[in-house]
Amino acid sequence: MLKLNRLTETERKHFAKLIGENHDVIVGVAQKFARANPKNIGDFYDYYQEACLVLLPAHKGYDPSKGQWSTYLNTVLNNQLSKFSLLWNSPLSVNTNAVKLCMRIYHLESVGKDKEEILAELDITNDRYLEVRNLLRRECLSASKPENNQNMERIKEIRASLEGEELKIFELCLQEMTVMAMSQIMGYGHETMRRKVKRLLNKIREEYQ
User: pLDDT tens across 85-95, in order?
Assistant: First the structure.
């Protein structure tokens, strides 16, 4: 991932120019993912920032002989934000292919396709459609669904393994708070809070998957 503090002055100016030139595309893709994730702890700002950070590496890796820049950029942004959605969703049992399929379903619905058309175009069964359709709308480790006994037991295990600040951040995740809201409660800047949440989710994912 791009490290802004390592950019030269020339690279910073080029980066700012790229953001300006591609602002509408970045906003559009970020809004699409934010709308599809209303209960995700990441918000529009997080998706927009993530899209901006991949912009410079994408531009450096672009080969004009392989297609238009706009098509390439859309593909890169959608792939990166699919991975980002996976990170900021539940660390319990989501896989990247399911996230990508869910976003394809969301896109087809947004352009007016009905369920039967989507099933035919994606060549998936109705059961698979129902399984993944609301994947990105689910709560992050939500404790609001007591019927899911496996998740409830996993949450208890995670709670027992954490303490101090990590436990407090985990409890905020369970309350479906955005990173922005967490940063206000914890007294950290948005980016610092984002790194802390990311570190915790990675830790949970490594220990419990």
Answer: 766 654 444 55
Contact in structure between 208 and 158 (CB atoms under 8 Å)? yes
For the question of whether the overall pTM of this predicted structure is more than 0.70, the answer is no
Burial of 103 (0-12, 13-18, 19+ CB in 10 A): buried
Enclosing H/E stretch for 199: helix 190-208
For residue 143 the two structure tokens come to 């404790």
Per-residue pLDDT for 47 more than 50?
yes
Res 141: pLDDT: 37
Helices (H), 111-178: 115-122, 126-132, 149-161, 164-174
Residue 86 and residue 88: Cα distance in Å, rounded? 6
For every residue of the chain, DSSP letters joined together read: ---GGG--HHHHHHHHHHHHHTHHHHHHHHHHHHHT-TTSS--HHHHHHHHHHHHHHHHHT--GGGS-HHHHHHHHHHHHHHHHHHHHS-SSS--HHHHHHHHHHHHHHHTT--HHHHHHHHT--HHHHHHHTTGGGS-TT-SS-TT-HHHHHHHHHHHHH--HHHHHHHHHHHTT--HHHHHHHHT--HHHHHHHHHHHHHHHHHHH-
